[in-house]
Amino acid sequence: MKLKQLSLFLENKPGNVRKACRTLADNGINIETMALADTEQFGILRILVREWQKAKEVFEKNGVIVRESEVVAVAIEHRPGGLADILDVLDASGLNIEYMYGFFHHPANVPTDSNTAIIVFRFDNPDVAVQTLQHKGIRVIGNDEVFGK
């Protein structure tokens, strides 16, 4: 259960993040979550969208450098130590985390009083990461849970 993430390489100047978001909006594509990392001259905007192929095509037509990559999303309890427990498993397994970001989420199949956080991981070997996490009883989630049906 891997997800496709798009990484946009944007010049670090006012308005570029807005333009990327407006491009998606104008094409009817909703952003589930995003993370922005910057350097002095460029930023990397990482996004999860249901229609990633369409989004990639739209960005490329607009001259935006965009790359797709596979990431792994994990549902964790939104409580103190929820993330630390996952990181303990990953460290004990020797898995390398390239980067991660998270968001708060109420999945459709979980009662509304349940608090679930979603952590998106980029691993150097996502297939091994998925197998390891599932073997340890950690809930790896796919498109339907992240984006809804």
CATH level 1 name of the largest domain: Alpha Beta
Distance between the termini: 16 Å
Strand tally, please? Answer: 7
Radius of gyration: 16 Å
How would you state the average pLDDT, rounded? 89
| CATH-level-4 superfamily name of the largest domain | VC0802-like
Tell the overall outline. globular
**What's the architecture of the largest domain, going by CATH?**
2-Layer Sandwich
Number of helices: 5
Q: Main sheet?
A: 7 strands, antiparallel
Q: Percent of residues in helical segments?
A: 25-40%
Order of helices and strands: EHEEHEHEEHEH
Strand content: 35-45%
Low-confidence stretches: none
CATH topology (level 3) name of the largest domain: VC0802-like
* Count of folded domains: 2
Overall structural class, as computed from helix and strand content, comes to alpha+beta
Description:
- This protein has 149 residues and is α+β, with helices and mostly antiparallel strands.
- The protein folds into 2 domains: 3-69, 2-Layer Sandwich (VC0802-like), CATH 3.30.2130.10; 71-147, VC0802-like, CATH 3.30.2130.10.
- It has 5 helices and 7 strands; from the N terminus they run βαββαβαββαβα.
- Strands 1, 2, 3, 4, 5, 6 and 7 form a 7-stranded antiparallel β-sheet that branches.
- It is globular and about 45 Å long.
- The protein starts with a strand and ends with a helix.
- The mean pLDDT is 89.
